[in-house]
Design brief:
This protein is about 40% helix and about 15% strand. By secondary structure, the protein is of the alpha/beta class. The longest helix has 19 residues, at about 70-90. The relative contact order is 0.12.
C-alpha cells in the first residue's frame, strides 16, 4: 500500500481540494495522512473525516512590517524539525501540498528526506508559500493556463482544481426547505470565504430591503459574523458556516455573490452557477483574487465588482444584470476547458510516488 501525506491550511481554500482528492486516493488504495497547523481550520475539517492528523508549528511569512515578523521565523524553524520528524516516522511515498504557510516546512523536509512532493497552485500567480516550496517540488499543478509561464519549465502541469464530488449531488428542494424558503422566488447565495468578509456582509445587508422585494437571500457570513438584528427576517437566513448542506444550498441558488478565491470560483464554474465576484482588494492582499476574477470576466464566466467600487447601487445593478442574463453566463461556463482535475492529478500522484 502506498502512503501519501497531504498538507495545506490556513483557509478552507487550502484544504477543500485535498478533501476532494480523498475518495480517489482511497479507491487507489493510498494510506492517507495529513500534516497541518496545531489549531488551524484544517484540523477540524480533516479530523471529522477520520484521517490521521498531525499538527506542526506554523508561522506566517509577510511582505510587510509586523512585530510577528521577528517571532514567526522561529515558528517556521520549529515546524521544520517537527515536519522532518513526522516524515521520518510516516515514511510516505509522496507528499501533496495545497498551499498555505504550514506547507513550507513539510515540503522542505520532504526534499531533505528524498520524498517527492507535488504542489498545487490555485491562483493566477504563485503565493509566497508556494514560491518558497517550488524549488523543492517534483511537479507543480496549475489552475489557470496563464499560470504556467510563472512556473519552472518541466515542472508545471495544467490540471485545474479538484472539485468535491458531493457538490454535484445537491437537491434544490431540500435546500429551500432547510432555509424555509419558497420555490416561487429566486434565491441569492452569498459566500464571503471561509472566514467571512466584513465588506461583503455589510454591502449585502445594506441592500436587503431592496433585494428581498424580488429575491430570497442565503448568507454564509463567516465565523462570529452573524448579526442577530437580521434573525427572523422573512426571506433572509444567515449561517456562520455550512458544511453538510452546502450542496443543497448551491443547488437552490439562482445566482451567487462570492469573493474570488480560486477554489470557490472553480466550484462555481464546475456547477455552472451565474455569479458576481467581489475580489479582495489589492490594499489588503497580494492581488491574486483580482487576477482570478479578471480571468473569469474575460472568459465571460463572471460579473466582477471591484471592492473599491462596491456601493449599494453597483451591487444591485450587478444582481439584476446577472439574474436577467443568467442563461448567457451558464452557456459561457458550459464551454470551459477548465474541467474537474481529479483524474489528472491522481495520475501525477501515482507516477510521482516512490
Amino acid at each position: 500500500m502506498k502512503r501519501i501525506v497531504l498538507t495545506g491550511g490556513g483557509t478552507a481554500g487550502h484544504v477543500t481540494p485535498n478533501i476532494a482528492l480523498l475518495p480517489a486516493l482511497t479507491k487507489e488504495g493510498f494510506d492517507v495522512h495529513y500534516i497541518g497547523s496545531y489549531d488551524g481550520i484544517e484540523r477540524k475539517l480533516i479530523e471529522d473525516l477520520g484521517i490521521p492528523y498531525y499538527g506542526i508549528s506554523s508561522g506566517k511569512l509577510r511582505r510587510y512590517f509586523d512585530p510577528k515578523n521577528f517571532s514567526d521565523p522561529f515558528k517556521v524553524i520549529k515546524g521544520m524539525f517537527e515536519a522532518n520528524s513526522l516524515l521520518k516516522k510516516l515514511k510516505p511515498d509522496v507528499v501533496f501540498s495545497k498551499g498555505g504557510f504550514v506547507t513550507v516546512p513539510v515540503v522542505l523536509a520532504a526534499k531533505r528526506r528524498g520524498i517527492p512532493a507535488i504542489i498545487h497552485e490555485s491562483d493566477m500567480t504563485p503565493g509566497l508559500a508556494n514560491k518558497l516550496c517550488i524549488p523543492s517540488a517534483k511537479k507543480v499543478c496549475a489552475n489557470f493556463p496563464e499560470t504556467v509561464k510563472y512556473l519552472p519549465e518541466g515542472k508545471a502541469i495544467l490540471t485545474g482544481t479538484p472539485i468535491r464530488q458531493e457538490l454535484f449531488s445537491g437537491n434544490k428542494l431540500a435546500g429551500l426547505d432547510f432555509c424555509g424558503f419558497t420555490a416561487n422566488k429566486p434565491v441569492i447565495l452569498v459566500i464571503g470565504g471561509s472566514t467571512g468578509s466584513v465588506v461583503v456582509n455589510e454591502a449585502v445587508r445594506g441592500v436587503l430591503p431592496t433585494l428581498l422585494k424580488q429575491y430570497q437571500v442565503i448568507h454564509l457570513c463567516g465565523k462570529d459574523k452573524a448579526d442577530p438584528k437580521f434573525n427572523n427576517l422573512p426571506g433572509y437566513i444567515q449561517f456562520e458556516y455550512i458544511k453538510k448542506e452546502l450542496s443543497d444550498l448551491l443547488d437552490a441558488a439562482d445566482i451567487v455573490i462570492s469573493r474570488a478565491g480560486a477554489n470557490a470560483i472553480c466550484e462555481l464554474l464546475a456547477l455552472r452557477k451565474p455569479h458576481i465576484l467581489i475580489p479582495l482588494s489589492a490594499a489588503s492582499s497580494r492581488g491574486d483574487q483580482i487576477l482570478n476574477a479578471e480571468s473569469f470576466e474575460r472568459q465571460g464566466f463572471s460579473y466582477v465588482v471591484k471592492e473599491e467600487a462596491l456601493t449599494s447601487d453597483s451591487l444591485l445593478e450587478a444582481v439584476h444584470s446577472v439574474y436577467n442574463n443568467r442563461t448567457a453566463y451558464i452557456d459561457a461556463m458550459s464551454k470551459s476547458n477548465l474541467n474537474n482535475s481529479i483524474d489528472t492529478i491522481m495520475k501525477i500522484i501515482k507516477d510521482t510516488a516512490l
